[in-house]
Amino acid sequence: MGRGHSRAAIVAACGIAVIQMTGACASLAELKSRAAGNTSLRTAEPASPAVPVDASGTRTDLVETRWGPLGDADRELLVKVRQAGLWEMPVGEQAAVRASRAVTRKNLGEIARQHARLDADVREVAARLQVPLPDQPTEEQQGWIAEISAKQGLEYDKTAVARLRMAHGKVFPFIHQVRASTQNTLIRDFAERAAEFVNTHMDLLEDTGLVNSSGLPSTPKTENAPDVIPAGQPVPAVPPAMEAEGKPSPPMPSSGVNFIDTPTGPLSAADRDFLVKVRQAGLWEMPVGMQAATRAARARTRQNLQEIAEQHGELDALVIDVATRLRVPLPNEPSAQQREWIEEISAQTGGEWDRVAVQRLRMAHGKVFGLIAQVRASTRNTLMRDFAERTAEFVNTHMDLLEDTGLADASALPPPPKVADPPALPDTDLPDAAASQAPASGAEASDAPVAAGDPLDPPPAGEPSVSAGPTGGAGLVETRWGPLSAADRDLLVKVRQAGLWEIPVGEQAAVRASRAVTRKNLGEIARQHVQLDADVRKVAARLRVPLPDQPTEEQQGWIAEISAKQGLEYDKTAVARLRMAHGKVFPVIAQVRASTQNTLIRDFAERAAEFVNTHMDLLEETGLADATTLPTPPPVTSAPDPVPSGQPAPTAPPATSLPSA
């Protein structure tokens, strides 16, 4: 996604045709003055020079909303995401037809489809926060569209992938900086969703095989990047750092300035510095989290900080493994500043212990979060790429846990990223059009707090959610979400039983499969089925539908059949059984979604379909899902013959035609 944007394209003139808003536009100076009078928030450190402050150091870019203060960087993020979609969607749609390679057509088409969902998301969030959005790409982005459209053949693919990858790499750190620094819960959640999209898009672009070093942004600045231990010298046991210091190293092959060649790609100084930072984070956060078990005054603080410590144990083992494979020495002590934080926290008692511990931890996590994104976006090393993605998940979870304590106020947040040209402030006098909007359906909605009267909210006391017996058509039962059919209930059972055999098979395959891609993909299927299983049990409980606790006899037979195999036959059998099962249930989910009268089942079917579709992709990516693993195709009523070679292909209907080459 592109970072730059034209001021005129955003909102220099309030009459721009963007999201429909009611009321007159106040001047930027007037609104900022109003914002300054509504906030007394402070920061733990001097604010970034890019953040406007008054004489007392109070930020003047903040506007109060029902979701918390909204800053310039928050609004800038919404504009950047909107404009990214305005150029990446048409490029992706065009590439799905014009690209010369199948993988480019597939992956860029997928990016366009995902951007359509992200665009709907950003427009909804902006409407709630009353932030005007542009309806045109920037001039620079329009130039990229023209540049790409003018190419032919493989050059088209290369140019499109290069432009898209560079744009995504530049915006990725900005999203993470906003997530780490925002005080607005709506922006916080949106930034998390946007980061997932951008990360997926970078993966899709890299999967084309056309992303080289020229398509990557600059690496972040480094503070303490250790040298790699040369081949021929033993890799020291952890802690390794001190033994390697000061000793001359034989020359190592290099891919350029600050790069070292490794089997997993060039390793930069920023990559090595990142490993050190992750290691040192664990060296101070683990003891603080363990200390919380006895010192914290509040149960929530004890619980959440202990969870952070336990997760840092996993992350520490991971960073040690990666560093060992890349021959990067790691420290065995926190930094001097981190030791001071430990002492500062340890000196507190009661509620003050909780407050100081949460504040220090949240500030530290917020600062490293943007660095992770920069490393992920810029690294040329595949091992580091995967490690950065996993680290980002840990850090994001830790920020959620810290915020969940209720003690991470504005002073615990790092300064927001720089905003060269902030969008206009919303008019806080306008009515809140989003106050009455129901939460979006989907997995996120099911996990979010719901307001009274929401369709997912349990019924009030004394009001049954399901009637005593069937009413109406065959098998229909009345519920507060609409009639529940036998097919609806059968879907819940099928999804539950799918998890009961696919989770153990996936977990077993993550260890026993002979090929790395099988281990990785089937392990991922198992992890996703755990989420889906929690979802189906929640929905079934609301609808009072009993669920089985055992797989069917046939599914138990599949488990036994797979478990009896060895080597590559194990991989083939597991993938074949899983792909066939997913292929059979997929149309059942679609039929239920199309026919159900129950809104709870409708939303669940949509979520289940996303899981199953992803699982089929993962199974097909193993290269072992051949024609024998696919179910019988559906009957056809009118299948036209293809146009023979040599005859002109019919023109696409106007609704689906694309710009000509």
From TrEMBL:
Residues 73-205, 270-402, 487-618 form the DUF4142 domain. Coiled coil: none annotated. InterPro entries: DUF4142. Residues 426-455 have a biased composition (Low complexity). Residues 408-474, 626-661 are annotated as: Disordered. Residues 413-425, 631-653 have a biased composition (Pro residues). It comes from the Bacteria. Transmembrane segments: none annotated. PANTHER family: BLR2558 PROTEIN. This is DUF4142 domain-containing protein. It comes from Thermostaphylospora chromogena.
